[in-house]
Write a structure and sequence with these properties.
CATH superfamily: Inorganic pyrophosphatase
Distance between the termini: 20 Å
Number of helices: 2
Largest sheet: 5 strands, mixed, barrel
Structural class: alpha+beta
Number of domains: 1
CATH class: Alpha Beta
Length: 177
């Protein structure tokens, strides 16, 4: 059985085009996580706060980030996909975030195969409303979980996302190759 974190390439042309493995779905409160030991997507928890994912959310294969997890990616979609779906995506920005004292940044990406996002090349092409919704979600999604503290730290451009993806690929190679 294929392990989507270890067996799938990071993308067809990383860091400019990556694969995003979807775990959590736009509009839902379920927090799914890919379990490489099964391998498959499992329900980790239901979000305690009354918020929902503003878009599909998952991880980049063959990546490992400073929080000692696969690198997180939010793929902007009109309609949700499904847990375990692999989306070819273009990174357009990076949202900096601290989660309980660990750097837990998020790549923001758009699907390569959706013409609605062809004009989105960099974080400044996103509407302020889209950025505000993503920021609000990550600022508040753990509010009702005891002892959890999250701080969003602003937006960086596509080049910063590329650098962070390359960093995550290097950490993966160091840790698992």
């Amino acid at each position: 059985m294929t392990n989507l974190w270890e067996d799938l390439e990071t993308g067809p042309n990383p860091p400019e085009e990556i694969y995003a493995v979807v775990e959590c779905l736009k509009g839902e409160r379920n927090k799914y996580e890919y379990d490489k030991d099964i391998p498959g997507v499992v329900l980790d928890r239901v979000l305690h706060s009354n918020v929902h994912y503003p878009s599909d959310y998952g991880f980049i294969p063959r990546s490992y980030y400073d929080d000692e997890d696969p690198f997180d990616v939010m793929v902007l979609v009109e309609d949700q996909t499904f847990p375990g779906c692999v989306v070819e995506a273009r990174p357009v920005g990076l949202m900096k975030m601290d989660d309980d004292g660990e750097q837990d940044d998020k790549v923001i990406a758009v699907p390569v195969e959706d013409p609605r996002y062809d004009h989105i090349e960099d974080v400044e092409d996103l509407t302020q409303q889209t950025k505000d919704e993503i920021d609000e979600f990550f600022s508040s999604y753990k509010n009702l979980e005891e002892g959890k503290e999250v701080e969003t730290q602003g937006w960086e451009d596509r080049e910063a996302a590329y650098d962070a993806i390359e960093h995550a690929q290097e950490l993966y190679e160091e840790e698992f190759a």
